[in-house]
Every structure is written in C-alpha cells, then in structure tokens.
From TrEMBL, chain B:
<feature type="transmembrane region" description="Helical">
    <location>
        <begin position="232"/>
        <end position="256"/>
    </location>
</feature>
<keyword id="KW-1003">Cell membrane</keyword>
<dbReference type="InterPro" id="IPR001851">
    <property type="entry name" value="ABC_transp_permease"/>
</dbReference>
<keyword id="KW-1133">Transmembrane helix</keyword>
<feature type="transmembrane region" description="Helical">
    <location>
        <begin position="144"/>
        <end position="166"/>
    </location>
</feature>
<feature type="transmembrane region" description="Helical">
    <location>
        <begin position="64"/>
        <end position="84"/>
    </location>
</feature>
<dbReference type="GO" id="GO:0005886">
    <property type="term" value="C:plasma membrane"/>
</dbReference>
<feature type="transmembrane region" description="Helical">
    <location>
        <begin position="12"/>
        <end position="31"/>
    </location>
</feature>
<dbReference type="GO" id="GO:0022857">
    <property type="term" value="F:transmembrane transporter activity"/>
</dbReference>
TrEMBL record, chain C:
<keyword id="KW-0472">Membrane</keyword>
<dbReference type="GO" id="GO:0005886">
    <property type="term" value="C:plasma membrane"/>
</dbReference>
<dbReference type="Pfam" id="PF02653">
    <property type="entry name" value="BPD_transp_2"/>
</dbReference>
<feature type="transmembrane region" description="Helical">
    <location>
        <begin position="139"/>
        <end position="162"/>
    </location>
</feature>
<feature type="transmembrane region" description="Helical">
    <location>
        <begin position="281"/>
        <end position="303"/>
    </location>
</feature>
<feature type="transmembrane region" description="Helical">
    <location>
        <begin position="240"/>
        <end position="260"/>
    </location>
</feature>
<feature type="transmembrane region" description="Helical">
    <location>
        <begin position="12"/>
        <end position="37"/>
    </location>
</feature>
<feature type="transmembrane region" description="Helical">
    <location>
        <begin position="323"/>
        <end position="342"/>
    </location>
</feature>
<feature type="transmembrane region" description="Helical">
    <location>
        <begin position="182"/>
        <end position="210"/>
    </location>
</feature>
Length: 501, 307, 355
C-alpha cells in the first residue's frame, strides 16, 4: 500500500448531544482525487471544516505525511499545504483577479504593494498550471467559471498540495463544469491531490479515483473508480430505496398565469429579462431550468410584484396584474415559495407562529385585530402535518433548522389555496425525507388543479416534477421541452446558450 | 457680493472645515470596515473638552493634544469593544457614546472646573497660528493660508496619507479587503477584527484632533455641546465621499465652505437663526444629489427601497 | 426551576446594567468629592422621597414616555428616527401657538393644541420619511440634522415675531398661555398633570396594537425583515409614512403636554436643555422598543434626573451624575442587541434601518 499523504482517523465531532461526525476514517494519496458524497447533513462539511482548521474534532487524529498535526485555524491548514475552495466563493468583487489571488501574500518591498508584480505572478501561475484568466479583470465582471479558476489559482499560489473543493459545480454551466473536471485531472497529474465534496454523482463518477459515502455522520462505504455506479452510491447515501413518485400525465385547464413580452432593462445595458413570454395552465407544473443568475429571480420578482418591469404584461387568472402591488397580486391568487428562505421567506427574530402567519394576516382578523386562537391552531396543524420540529409556536424562527423552516414556508404558501403557485428552489438544502414530502405536496396540488411555476437549479428536480420545461439563458427563454423529450444533456446545452438544432 | 466672497472666506473655510474633515476621515476608516460610526459627534466633543482640560492642567498645547488623543482613544476602544467584540448594534452604541460624551463633559465641567455651560481661562494658550515666511507674501496663497493652525495642514496631510495607505500599501490593501468581504478576508488569514479596532482607534485619534481644533483653534474655550452636529455633518461627508480620502476631502470642503459662509452671513442684518441653519440645510440637500453608492446597490437588489 | 429561569433571565441584563451604571456613577461621585451612599440616598429622596418629589418625577417622565414611545414605534418598524428633538419642538411650538391664538372655550383650545402638537410633530417626521422613501435620503442622518433646523427655527419665532414683550424681555420666549387652556392637574398642589394619564394610555394602546392587530403585526415584520414583509404583501411606503407620522406625532404630543401641563409657554432652549428627546430615545433603546418597558424605563430615567437635582441641591455633586449613569446603562444594554444584529445576513453596512 502506498503511503497516505493525509490520514484522518476516527474523527468524531459532537455538538452537545448531536454527533455530526462519528468515527470517520478518511485518507488521501498524493495525486489522488477522492470524492466525498452524501446527503445534506450527512457530515461532509463538518469533516472538511475540521480538516481546514475551522472546527476542532471532539476526538480523532489527523496526520500529514505520517506526522500528527492539528490545525487551530485555516491559516494553520494553509501553511501545511491544505487549501479550500468554498461553495460560496471567497472573493473580493471589486478587486482585480490578480489582487484576489495574491491577497495574504502580496508581492512588493517593505510596506508597498507592487500590483505590477502581482499581475506577472498570476500570469506565471496560469502558464504553469494551464489555466487561463485575465489578471487585470475586475472579479465582479467575470463569469462564475472564471471566479472558480481564480479560487483554485489562489489556493495554488498559497502553496496548496491538497485542495478541498466544496460543491464546486453548483453555479457553473455544463461547459464550465467540463472545463473544471478537466483542470482537476490535469492538476492531479501534476501531483496535486483533491478532495471533492459533491452530491452530483455523475460528476463524481467521472473524475474521482475513490469515493467515500457518508450518511448521518458515518462512513457507509468506500468504493474505488470503476467499482461504483450511481445506483449503488445513492443507495449508500440514502440507506433505502427511494419511492418512485406516483404521477399521472397532466390534464391542463385554463391559463392561470400569462406572462407576455416582459422586459427589464439592466443597469449595464444588458437586459435582465429580455422579452420573456410564458404561460402556466391550471393543473400543470412548468419547470424553469437555468444556471442561477440568468433572470429567474427577476422573473419571479416581476410576477409577484416585488420588482417592476419596463415593458410587457402579466395576467393572473385572466386578470391583468401588471404593476400591481405585491398585496394585490397575492389577493388575485398567487402564492409564492421564495427562492431564499432567509432573505424573503422568514423573519428570524419572529416566532414560528408569526412567520407562519405572513400572507394570512388579512384573512384571520376581526376589525383589525388578529384572531390569535385560530392562527395558533392553523400553524400547529402544519407543524403536525409536515412534522416540523420546533420547540413551540413561540420559538424564535431562527432556531428552526433549514429543512424545518422550508416545510413551514411550504405549508404556509400551500394554505393560501390559490390557483397559481410559484415554487422557487422548494427543496434547497433540505434532507431527503423533507424533499419527498414537499414533492408529494406539489404533485398533489397539481392534481387538484393548481398551476405551478417551478424554478430550480437542480435539473433532477425539474425533470422529476415538471410537465413542461423552459430553459432560461441570459434573461431569455432559450427553449421549451416537454418532459418526455427532456434529458439532462439537452437541457444542459440550452442552459449554456446552445441550440438544439 | 464681493464683500461676502473673498480670499478671507476661503481662509476661514479652511479653519472650520478642519474638524469636519478630520472626523470624516475617521468615519471613512470605520465605514470601510463595516462600522457606521454615529459616535463621531461624541468622540469630537470629548476631544474638544479634554484638549481644553489638558491645556489647563499642563499649560502646554502639545501636551493638551496628546492628552486629548489618549482620552478619546480610550473612549473609542469602548465603542470598538461593544460593536466589534460584543457585536452590539453599532448605531445604538454610537448614540449611547454620544450621550456618554455629553454626560462626561458636562459633569466634568462642573466637577473639575466648577462652571456651568462654558469654561474659559485666559492663562490657556491656543494652538499656534502659522504665518509661513515666504508663502505669506505670495498674493493669492498668502491670504488664504494666513494664520492657520498646524492642525489644518495635518488634516490635509492625513487625507493624503490615507490615500497612499489604501491604494499603495499591503496593509491598506488588506484593510480594504477586510471591509469588502470579511468572511473571505478571514479565509486568507487577515485578522479582520484587528483592522476594525485599528479603524475605530484611528477615528478616535482623528476626532481628538478635530475636537482640539474646535476648542483650541479659533477660540480657546470649551462650551457644552460645542460640536453642534459637526460629527453628524462629518458622517454625511463620509457618505458623500464614498469613504474614499479624496471624496471625503471634497465633501468636507463643501461643508466647511458653508460653515464659513454662515459665519460670514452673521455680519449681515439676517437673524442668526437662519444663518446658523445653513450648514444643516445644505447637508440635507447634498444628500438628495449625491447618494452613497452602496445604498443604491442595496436598493437595486431590493427593487424598491433604500435598504 | 425552569419557570424561574424563564422569568429571571430576561431581567438579569437590565439589572446588571443598572448595577454597572450605579458603579460608574459612584466613580463620578468620588471624582466630585462626594460620599457615595449619601449621594445615592439624596438621589432616591429627590426622585421618590415624598409625594411631591414622586409626582414631580412622574411629571418629568411624561414627555419622556411619549417621546420614547414614538421612538420605540419607529424602531419596531425598522426606521431609525432620531429626530425626536425637532419633532417635539415643533409639537410644543404648535401647541403654544394654538393655545395662544385659537379662540374658543379653554377645554376646546387645549384639545386643539394637543392635536396641533401631534400633527406638527408628525408632519415634520413624515417629511424625513418621505425623503427616504422617495429620494433615498438616509433617514438616520436627515432626522438628526433636521433637529438643528427645527430648534433654530422655533428659536427664531420666539426671538422675533412671537416674542413676549410684556415682562422682562431678556428671555426669548412666547407669551404665557391663559390658564383656562392648561392641562388639569391630577392632584391639586402637585406638579403631576393629566398628560401622564395620556402617556400611560398611549403605552397600553401601542402595546395592544403591536401585539394583537394586523397593522402591528405588519410593522413588527417590516422591522424584523423588510424583504419578508414586502414579499408577504406589506406596503413599505405607506407603512413608513404612517409609522413616521405616529412616531413624530407622539414626540410632538410629548412637547405639547409639556407646554400645556408644565411650562405654559414656549421658552427657547428649555426643552432641549432638559434633554427630553434624547432621554426618550434612550428609554426606548433601554427597553428594546417594548412599549410597556419604555414606560418603565422612561420613569426610571426621569427619576435619575430628578434625583440628580436632589443631589445637586443637597450635596456638592453636580446633577450630571445622572446623565453618566444613564449613558453607561445604555452602553451595557446595547450589548444585548448582539443576537438580533447577527440575524440579519450580509448586513455589514448599517444605515437608517433599526434594530
């Protein structure tokens, strides 16, 4: 057996009663790509935070090149040649690419920061590792794929031998994903080792030499390249066979949402929404696919009255609601599961009951005063139905876990009983159980004749739930596919700005 | 008109803008690291008082200024501890610091000097007023720079140094980074809280200098609440200047000019109430025309409102 | 045991803060060369020792309560209205003008004067709210600066057109109000007037409004997460105008009751030097913008001031020792905002939005 570059032995991490990691063993060879897969909450992130010095293990040891080490901070880890590319990029948007890469180890003599030298350093790095970036571009104006390269170059500049990539492909187009996987292979040939955290099994299968599967804080399997397929991995991840969704073909009725030729001119001359037209009929789910940042958020904001359009019109159940306030639009029959539950969907300081009340407050009142009893029984009904784990209805919303909060929001919006529903990223960051509940509820709503506009960055979710699929690219509808003709490849092509002809 | 706008006006503008500029530079440092320092007013008030107190005790202007710097630095550390370490709401802390400064100064005025309202002692020496030998005789420049205190020059020097620090040094680069994205800065080992404390401390020192210019520059006395909102005007200068040294200097010039103009108007038949209003009204009007960029970005994100 | 901790824990920090505040005051007393125990005893006597002093404290608390409630209301809705001083001054000025020049029976003029106070304070406050909603002029700063404008403008009016030229013309003040329009006293011979009842009522109404009503709910949500409120159909613009009117109106009412119940004329600088406005804002901050808490905090802060006067009468220690205790209290209480501040994501640049 070749000597391991990195060895983590029986790592356990407890938060109070709860164990995020239980006796995890993990190892990495030089030049190896070792993937860690698992559900949300399986303990991947905790393990990597421990390795990167952001958390201290409750018990267990880490050794590098056979020597025991412990990292008090990320700085420690960096000095030992471990670098991490975070899921949410750690970049400074107004700084240039070169500045972003050299930060922390700036070139120059004395106190002076030599920016010219920084540029030439970055040019050299690009040369050495065969990755291309423009050192003088401002980061905020570059594409996500470039930002990812900047992150990797930064880690390499810091002298990393082991590079942790946390969900690196979430914001990338399929083409950019391909380039990234290529770069990983290239760098591993040059002797760099990678730890790849992901839940996208096909990417993992393509690039990883070894795959460790985590579930509930424990290792449920370690498989080598060639021994694994997606079915095996997902069984190891979930621990049971997933029930297939029971879905019948849609029986669409009248249009409940008609968006015609909506345009929002952006600040930089490029339209954010470019002449978007779509319709959703009663009893069908229309999926909107696309890399995030291609106008989906703005589209939802325009439909729900949170932003105004420069031209075009929106009809809800046949009634023109263009330019109406959010309240009137809701009164005309819109419910909305928002894309970011903390930004739009909840008030963290408010109680669970108060967060659950939003949108119902004008209904559950008598002469301006809230009917508190009815409100409480309504919300506690949701808590039971969706098995939302909360201390009480008076618990502060911030203490709910992400999945439980999401279920509360879904329950709240379904309760509106409107003919049209926006479901934006309805299962982002929730566990499999909650995801199944939410998907089931959405399909049930469809059967009952609600028209649903589903926006999701997860292609699998889109394909699983939608009857028709629209792809957004740079503020336009780049194509429409029925669920029968849609494949991940075709959607990926449209998402990257290609055409199907 | 000519009587209103002459070189002496520019000269007096330079004198009165100095406290605003110094405080605004301190505010800019704080806002660059994400601390909206509403406490500038209190910092400056305490600076003005301790400069006079130091002057009275030590009978020496330099010691007086050093004393003011020490006092306000300690005071600013309280602000820093609460808002950085305990992560208290900076605005609430700022408001409380202003109240505390007002309380301490009026209390000490009574407890130390046993006077109410104002303290004046003719043994005290004010800041020296420089007339630089050769420049004195240059036609336009001479009258403009006549009899300015060293702190006026110091203020502009500091603005220049700050520019060099921000855009030419490694430390300044990291300072800006710490403010731009603290999380990312921490991930590359930048000690963000250290820079934040540094900014707060520096704003304390700058406000101490600003306060000293107020109480030892024009007049040599302390009156209760003598900052009269200059700290808040400085805060607006910070916003208008988008926390950059050059922008802040330009904004302070505008407000200093208004201040000087309002003093000049007092010679006219107008009721002083209206002339005194001028700087505040102009400051509010200025906010209509120049908006802090970051506020607008937030607003864009949100579609409708200013936050 | 569990119930015990549930009730005592929220009280721990205020009590701790009061202890620290009193310690800071003790240092001040030592510096001023007084005896700590004696001074605090005098302070207690000055605030609560006997019916006269007690009602005097409540009377002083009256404008502070109203102003504090106004500030708390705005803070709850997420608007950092620091313009209480100007709003109070305009309220007081309007009340004085109506009291002086409106013909009619005394009770009618008195009520009209109170209403005028509310409207004047409210409109002055709404102006800043409108500037923010429409032109994105930072509310925190504009309300602060408008204080100076209001005080100077009121000062001009009583120094020139409205100046009382009958008596000793040394002071810039308006003529005395006719005593038919004065607010009636609650107990004859004591300073306490009916304005205190108004203040307590206002606190109760705001408490119920925030906790039980639809509008109160929407205000709380707007203050907690404005985006969530927008998403749920709360209209921010009208809410902002409404909340700012209520906030400024309460401050204006505070100024009006002080004129109609205690001072009976507008005296330049009298309201500012008594520091009612900032004390009211402090009371709101101290109570975390809770209406009943604001009421209690306002009485406590008023007691510090009246107690301070007692101290000054009977010892060598200046009354400003109360101001120091008050400010230190706030500093320590402000640390409590830790958690609520962390909750708002990505909020590294604070501006006019509150707590």
């Amino acid at each position: 057996m070749t000597r391991m570059l990195l060895q983590m032995d029986s790592i356990t991490k407890k938060y109070g009663e709860f164990s995020a990691n239980r006796g995890i063993d993990f190892s990495l060879r030089a030049g190896e790509v070792h993937a860690i897969v698992g559900e949300n909450g399986a303990g991947k992130t905790t393990l990597m935070r421990i390795l990167y010095g952001m958390e201290q293990p409750t018990s267990g040891t880490i050794s590098l090149n056979g020597k025991a080490v412990s990292f008090a901070s990320p700085l420690d880890a960096i000095q030992h040649g471990i670098g991490m590319v975070h899921q949410h990029f750690m970049l400074f948007p107004t700084f240039t690419v070169a500045e972003n890469i050299v930060i922390g180890h700036e070139p120059g003599s004395g106190v002076r920061f030599d920016r010219k030298q920084a540029v030439s350093i970055v040019e050299e790095l690009c040369e050495t590792y065969g990755m291309k970036v423009d050192p003088e571009a401002v980061v905020s104006s570059t594409a996500p794929g470039v930002q990812q390269r900047v992150e990797i170059l930064k880690v390499l500049y810091q002298g990393a031998e082991i590079i942790i990539l946390d969900e690196p492909t979430g914001v990338l187009t399929p083409l950019e994903v391909k380039e990234l996987l290529e770069a990983i292979k290239q760098l591993s040939k040059q002797g760099k080792s990678f730890i790849l955290i992901s839940h996208k099994l096909n990417e993992v299968l393509e690039v990883a030499d070894r795959i460790t599967v985590l579930r509930d804080g424990e290792v449920t399997g370690v498989v080598n390249k060639g021994e694994a397929d997606a079915a095996l991995l997902s069984r190891l991840m979930v621990g049971r066979e997933l029930a297939d969704l029971d879905r019948r073909p849609a029986q669409p009725g009248e249009s409940v949402l008609e968006v015609s030729e909506v345009t929002i001119r952006g600040s930089k001359g490029k339209p954010v929404l470019d002449n978007v037209s779509l319709n959703v009929r009663a009893g069908e789910i229309v999926g909107v696919a696309g890399i995030s940042g291609n106008g989906q958020s703005e589209l939802l904001q325009v439909i729900s009255g949170l932003a105004s359009s420069d031209s075009g019109s929106i009809k809800l159940s046949g009634k023109d609601v263009t330019g109406m306030s959010t309240r009137s639009i809701r009164e005309h029959g819109l419910a909305h599961i928002p894309e970011d539950r903390y930004v739009w969907g909840a008030n963290r300081t408010a109680t669970v009951a108060d967060t659950g009340l939003m949108g119902h407050q004008r209904r559950l009142q008598r002469s301006g005063m809230l009917k508190l009893k009815e409100i409480r029984s309504l919300v506690s009904g949701w808590v039971q139905k969706f098995s939302i784990k909360t201390g009480s209805l008076d618990t502060s919303t911030q203490y709910l876990s992400g999945g439980n909060l999401q279920k509360l929001i879904v329950a709240r919006e379904l309760e509106q009983g409107t003919p049209f529903l926006i479901a934006a990223e309805p299962t982002r960051g929730v566990d499999i159980g909650a995801m199944e509940t939410i998907h089931g509820e959405l399909l049930k709503r469809r059967e009952e004749g609600t028209g649903i506009l589903l926006v999701s960055s997860e292609l699998t979710e889109i394909i699983k739930l939608s009857d028709r699929i629209l792809v957004m690219y740079e503020g336009r509808i780049a194509g429409e596919l029925s669920v029968n003709e849609a494949t991940e490849e075709k959607l990926g092509l449209l998402m990257a700005g290609g055409t199907l002809q | 008109m000519a009587q209103l706008f002459d070189l002496a006006l520019i000269n007096s503008a330079l004198r009165v803008l100095t406290p605003i500029l110094l405080a605004a530079l301190g505010g800019a440092l704080c806002s660059r690291v994400g601390l909206f320092n509403v406490g500038l007013e209190g910092f400056m008030l305490l600076g003005a008082f301790s400069a006079v107190a130091g002057n009275y005790f030590f009978g020496n202007v330099v010691y007086a200024i050093v004393f003011a710097i020490i006092v306000v630095s300690l005071f600013s550390l309280v602000f820093g501890y609460l808002s950085i370490h305990l992560k208290a709401n900076v605005i609430v802390v700022g408001v409380a610091m202003n109240a505390l400064a007002a309380g301490i100064t009026t209390f000490s005025l009574r407890a130390i000097f046993d006077v109410k309202g104002a303290f004046y002692d003719n043994t005290m020496v004010g800041l020296p007023k420089w007339n630089i030998p050769i420049i004195e005789n240059i036609p336009v420049l001479g009258p403009i720079l006549a009899g300015l205190t060293p702190l006026v020059y110091v203020a502009f020097l500091i603005a220049g140094l700050m520019w060099y620090y921000f855009y030419r040094t490694k430390s300044g680069f990291r300072f800006l980074a710490a403010g731009e994205n603290p999380l990312a800065a921490r991930s590359v080992g930048i000690r963000v809280t250290r820079y934040q404390y540094g900014a707060v401390l520096a704003s304390g020192v700058l406000c101490a200098l600003g306060g000293a210019q107020l109480s030892l520059g024009q007049v040599t006395m302390f009156t209760e609440g003598m900052t009269a909102g200059r700290g808040f005007i400085a805060l607006v200068a910070t916003m208008l200047g988008q926390s950059g040294p050059l922008g802040v200097t330009a904004a302070s010039l505008l407000f200093g000019f208004m201040d000087a103009l309002s003093i000049r108007f007092q010679g006219l038949a107008l009721p002083t109430h209206f002339t005194q209003m001028l700087p505040y009204v102009v400051t509010i009007l200025a906010m209509f025309f120049f908006k802090d960029k970051s506020f607008q970005q937030d607003a864009l994100k949100q579609g409708t409102s200013s936050r | 045991m569990n119930k015990w901790t549930k009730w005592t824990l929220p009280l721990l920090q205020p009590i701790g803060a009061i202890i620290v505040g009193l310690l800071a005051g003790a240092i001040g007393i030592l510096i001023a060369g007084g005896s700590i125990l004696e001074t605090y005893a005098e302070m207690w006597k000055g605030a609560f020792g006997g019916m006269y002093f007690f009602t005097n404290t409540l009377s002083r608390a009256t404008p502070i309560i109203l102003i504090g409630l106004g500030a708390a209301f705005a803070f709850r809705a997420g608007f950092f209205n620091l313009g209480a001083e100007g709003q109070m001054v305009f309220g007081a000025l309007a009340a004085a003008l109506v009291g002086l020049y409106l013909p009619g029976p005394g009770w009618f003029v008195c009520i009209a004067a109170l209403l005028a106070g509310v409207i004047a304070g409210g409109l002055w406050s709404v102006m800043a709210g409108y500037f923010d909603a429409r032109f994105r002029v930072n509310l925190l700063i504009s309300t602060l600066l408008l204080n100076y404008v209001a005080v100077l403008f009121a000062g001009y009016l009583v120094a020139y057109p409205l100046r009382d030229r009958s008596g000793s013309a040394a002071m810039a003040q308006s003529p005395m109000l006719d005593n038919s329009v004065w607010l009636p006293k609650l107990i004859s011979g004591m300073p306490l007037h009916i304005g205190f009842v108004l203040a307590v009522l206002a606190a109760l109404i705001i408490f119920v409004l925030l906790k039980r009503s639809v509008i109160g709910y929407e205000i709380r949500m707007l203050g907690g997460n404005p985006l969530f409120a927008l998403y749920g159909g709360v209209k921010r613009g009208p809410m902002m105008i409404g909340a700012m009117f209520a906030s400024g109106g309460l401050a204006g009412l505070g100024g009006a009751v002080e004129i109609l119940g205690s001072q009976y004329r507008y005296i330049d600088g009298a309201l500012s030097t008594a520091n009612y406005a900032w004390t009211g804002i402090m009371a709101a901050l101290l109570a975390g913008s809770h209406p009943i808490g604001t009421l209690i905090a306002a009485i406590f802060l008023a007691a510090l001031q009246t107690g301070g006067m007692g101290v000054e009468r009977n010892t060598e220690v200046p009354l400003e020792v109360g101001a120091i205790i008050q400010a230190v209290l706030i500093l320590f209480i402000s640390a409590r905002f830790t958690y609520s501040f962390l909750k708002r994501r990505k909020e590294n640049k604070s501006d006019g939005t509150a707590v």
